[in-house]
Specification:
The complex is a heterodimer of chains A (522) and B (350).
Chain A (H helix, E strand, L loop, with lengths): L2 E12 L2 E12 L3 E6 L5 H8 L3 H5 L4 E6 L2 E2 L5 H6 L2 E4 L11 H6 L7 H7 L8 H14 L15 H13 L6 E5 L7 H16 L3 E5 L3 H7 L2 E6 L2 E7 L5 H9 L17 E10 L6 E9 L3 E6 L7 H6 L5 E7 L2 E2 L5 H6 L2 E4 L3 H5 L6 H13 L15 H15 L15 H15 L3 E5 L7 H18 L2 E5 L3 H7 L2 E6 L2 E6 L5 H8 L6
Parallel strand pairs in A: 3-8, 3-9, 6-7, 7-8, 13-18, 13-19, 16-17, 17-18
Antiparallel strand pairs in A: 1-2, 1-4, 4-5, 9-10, 11-12, 11-14, 14-15, 19-20
Helix pairs in contact in A: 14-15, 14-16, 16-17
Chain B lengths: L1 H4 L6 H19 L4 H20 L2 H5 L8 H17 L4 H29 L4 H22 L19 E3 L13 E4 L2 E4 H17 L3 H11 L1 H6 L4 H27 L1 E3 L8 H10 L9 H25 L3 H30 L2
Antiparallel strand pairs in B: 1-4, 2-3
Helix pairs in contact in B: 2-13, 3-8, 3-11, 3-12, 3-13, 5-6, 5-7, 5-11, 6-11, 9-11, 12-13, 12-14, 13-14
The chains are: A alpha/beta (522), B mainly alpha (350).
């Protein structure tokens, strides 16, 4: 088969720091080419170059050669890449929040009325909304998602957005090469599998796919070839059949990863927080009458298929979305879902949407870490009239320095902007902020989403340590069942916004599978 | 302060402005103009307009956008000065009373302004423009009907209604400009004036180091983050908007004492574009601004204004100066809006 894409000795540096060094890579028609690598290994940079992201040119371009169908190309803009027949689903979504699902999917390829086509020309023709909606719904259905395509994207849950993002690319007729950056990262396992089936079907039809993922099982499962990147270099390449997960992981990290495991133990059954008929109106992730009691000092896993409400619990408690129902925290009713009051009471929420909710990208690492503690608990404040008190910079820097060492946050200095850190390190910064606030009850949503294996284990280990040393009660909402099983004392499965079942972490896979699907096992 | 300067990197608009400034300076030199005199005047111009430019910073950083509603603060300052002049308070007492009254009145106006802007979150700039535009006719009634008594302020004929230009000559004209004026040969350094400006800069700098200031800053950068961290978003924005309005009030007092007149009626409308233009020339991206950028921008823009007048008079028709001023002012704002849209757009580009 012919090569759709051929990359020769591609190098790229940002401000003198090499991001890619002499990359050689080729993708054939009908091939799924996997690219794996830890965060900061250069995967995203590679995608940016291929897809003509302007940031590449603004930072001085690249060296090397890119051949597309045998022709040398210099993608200068995303539009150019699209015209060449490339498509890309971004890790951080590139959707227009104020347009509907159908409009997003069909953007630029709208079906129009024939009559007005002739009258005004295709560019100024009226859009046939009905046919567009039907087409969009069909593509989504192909992906296994049945949703009203008239909903605005801004109101969707993260996983649904991922499907819309993919649907937009898949819907294109002229697509020859599809770049997928962590398409399954925000999906639950089941949704991920569905997606993979679709991808395999598309590759059989002759489409070349570059598939970036942290989920090595998926890579093993679907890729025809896998290239492993580490620190901007190609370290190894495997063909289908030779791929083994442990080998990939070793190549990625360069050393073995110790998996974080929390030993089983007996729990006391003193409730720390109980929810009665708790509902949260978070679009796409509604909770509808949850009854759940969390015990003091436990790590409770919260899992569900995407869209079934596991993410909404913490946000509802912090007043980010309208909530109703009764919450008893330490024998007291919480009447107002108010972030400030609840943080003071010892509750804290680490969000799943790091870019949107988790960080102040333009602020320094230090500012990010101390922000909430300083604002709400008045930590590191000099004794002055509130709220105009100044920060005790020395004390704060000392504290931040300790946390940076403890959490192994990789940064140039504590004054570095958080925007410049990798995803895993940003998540560590979020963790550090939570540690600074020192909550008694910590909600964590998708703590390991989109970060590499070693950072993942580090974060899970931190959560276990926090729980064991400070007796912090932790509720982890995650779609990574394997991780929950290793870390949690109990795992609650939600279905359609309600508690379906609480399972022990050592319950067999099958039981989880059944529970997630809402089937009562025996 | 160093931290603030790190972010003031040079971008195309600054380069254009700097080249333009260099050309003007060269011309001024060849035309044998009084460069020392121009320099002296540039320092005065910096502070004269600079405080108004500074007043934009709190709102920008709290995420309330460029303050196109600057006339609100200016109006507050004008009322303050008019009251002081009405009671014939001259010299320092007059100036301080003006400042005091301006701060009080602007506090109230800013509070109301802030409440309105909090209801139009995301569209503050356009809302601010129209609040400013609708305040002016309202204030025109006030200036005509308010029972001011000082004859020097009223229309000479009829004795009813304030004059469009009230002279400050007998009150506090140039009181800051001439305070601790140091003469070094041909150079005159208005230390008092610069000190006053420095004081406001310092105050602003310290504000953003306080807890309230940090909260406002975080709100501007990532509102959802701030809310999840328990920040009172409306409160933080309100505080920043009040602060902006108060500094604008002080700004117009400083401006008027330099200029020598209190300008009423439609005059405030001519003030907010140059101020916004200045902060953009200084390198702000229109969503966040540092004190250094505000100061640099004010100095560059005002110095250009200052140089174009005599040069154009010398080699071109005099009217060209006004054209050039307007052109620079508006095109810089247009550039910033374009640039900002492009930045915002690139996030979604596909």
């Amino acid at each position: 088969m012919e090569n759709i894409l051929e990359i020769k000795e591609l190098s790229k540096a940002y401000h003198g720091v090499p991001a890619l060094i002499d990359i050689d890579l080729s993708v054939k028609a009908g091939e799924i080419h996997g690219i794996v690598g830890a965060n900061g290994s250069g995967k995203s940079t590679l995608m940016n170059i291929l897809f003509g992201n302007p940031i590449v040119r603004e930072t001085g371009g690249y060296q090397g050669e890119i051949l597309y169908r045998g022709r040398r190309i210099h993608p200068k803009s995303c539009g150019e890449a699209i015209r060449l027949g490339m498509g890309m689903a971004h890790q951080e979504f590139a959707l227009l929040p104020d347009l509907t699902i159908a409009e997003n999917i069909k953007l630029g390829r709208e079906r129009t009325w024939k009559f007005t086509d002739r009258l005004f020309g295709p560019k100024y023709s009226f859009i046939d909304r009905k046919r567009n909606a039907a087409g969009a719904a069909q593509v989504l259905h192909q992906l296994g998602l049945d949703v009203d395509v008239g909903i605005k994207v801004i109101n969707l849950a993260t996983n649904t957005k991922q499907f819309v993002e993919l649907a937009r690319e898949i819907d294109r007729r002229d697509l020859q090469l599809l770049l997928l950056d962590e398409p399954t990262a925000v999906l639950s396992k089941r949704d991920g599998l569905k997606l993979i089936e679709v991808l395999m079907g598309m590759s059989q039809a002759g489409l070349g796919i570059i598939f970036i993922s942290h989920r090595l099982e998926e890579v093993e499962h679907i890729c025809d070839r896998v290239t492993v990147l580490r620190d901007g270099r190609v370290v190894s390449r495997y063909n289908k059949g030779e791929i083994s997960i442990s080998q990939l992981a070793r190549d990625m990290i360069g050393h073995r990863v110790n998996k974080a495991i929390a030993p089983a133990r007996d729990l006391n059954t003193r409730p720390v927080i109980s929810f009665r008929q708790f509902s949260v109106d978070m679009p796409g992730e509604e909770l509808k009458g949850l009854d759940l009691t969390v015990f003091e000092g436990e790590i409770l896993g919260l899992t569900s298929l995407s869209g079934h409400g596991k993410l909404a619990l913490g946000y509802g408690l912090m007043g980010l979305y309208p909530a109703a129902g009764e919450v008893i925290y330490k024998h007291q009713r919480i009447d107002q879902m108010d972030a400030r009051a609840n943080i003071r009471k010892g509750i804290y929420v680490l969000p799943d949407d790091r870019q949107g909710l988790g960080i102040l990208p333009e602020h320094s690492l230090a500012d990010n870490i101390i922000f909430t503690g300083n604002q709400v608990k008045n930590l590191f404040a000099k004794n002055m009239v509130r709220p105009f008190g100044f920060l005790d910079q020395k004390k704060a820097d000392l504290h931040v320095g300790q946390l940076v060492d403890e959490l192994e946050i990789k940064c140039a200095s504590i004054k570095q902007k958080v925007r410049e850190l990798s995803g895993g390190n940003q998540q560590k910064v979020c963790m550090a902020r939570a540690l600074t606030v020192d909550p008694k009850l910590l909600f964590v949503a998708e703590p390991t989403r989109g970060i590499d294996i070693s950072a993942k284990e580090k974060i899970l280990k931190l959560l276990i340590d926090l729980n064991r040393t400070k007796q912090t009660t932790i509720i982890i909402a995650s779609s990574e069942l394997d991780e929950l099983k290793r870390v949690c004392d109990r795992i609650a499965v939600l279905v359609e916004g309600k508690l379906f079942k609480i399972l022990a972490p050592d319950s067999p896979e099958v039981e989880f599978g059944l529970a997630l699907a809402g089937e009562q096992g025996n | 302060m160093k931290l603030m300067m790190n972010n003031g990197c040079i971008k195309p608009p600054q380069i254009i402005i700097l080249i333009f400034l260099a050309v003007l300076l060269g011309l001024a030199y060849f035309l044998k103009m009084d460069l020392a005199g121009l320099f002296n005047e540039s320092l005065i111009k910096l502070v004269m307009n600079g405080v108004l430019v500074l007043s934009l910073i709190p709102m920008l950083n709290a995420g309330a956008g460029m303050n196109f509603g600057l006339p609100v603060g200016i109006t507050g300052g004008l009322i303050g000065m008019c009251i002081a002049v009405n009671f014939r308070l001259a010299g320092w007492p007059g100036f301080f009373m003006s400042l005091l009254l301006s701060v009080a009145i602007c506090g109230i106006l800013g509070w109301i302004y802030g409440l309105i802007l909090n209801r139009v979150k995301g569209r503050e700039e356009i809302a601010g423009t129209f609040i400013g535009l609708s305040l002016i006719p309202l204030m025109n009634y006030f200036w005509t009907l308010a029972p001011f008594q000082n004859r020097q302020m009223l229309y000479p004929i009829g004795g009813q209604g304030l004059r469009p230009k009230i002279t400050l000559e007998p009150y506090f004209y140039n009181i800051l400009d001439n305070f601790s004026l140091v003469k070094l040969g041909p150079l005159e350094i208005p230390l008092g004036l610069l000190g006053f400006y420095g004081l406001i800069c310092l105050g602003l700098y310290l504000f953003f180091r306080t807890k309230a200031g940090r909260a406002a800053m975080a709100t501007g950068e990532n509102e959802a983050f701030a809310r999840l961290s328990g920040i009172d978003i409306a409160g933080a924005r309100l505080l920043a908007i009040i602060l902006s309005t108060v500094i604008a009030g002080i700004g117009i007092c400083v401006y008027s004492q330099s200029y020598g007149f209190i300008q009423l009626y439609d005059a405030p409308l001519a003030m907010y574009f140059p101020a916004i233009s200045a902060v953009l020339i200084g390198g702000s991206n229109g969503r966040r601004a540092f004190i250094f950028q505000a100061a640099l921008g004010a100095y560059l823009l005002q110095t250009i204004y200052l140089l174009t007048v005599p040069i154009a008079n010398e080699i071109l028709v005099p009217e060209i100066t006004e054209i050039l001023r307007t052109l620079i002012t508006y095109s810089i704002i247009l550039y910033a809006l374009l640039y900002r849209e492009r930045q915002r757009g690139s996030g979604h580009e596909n």
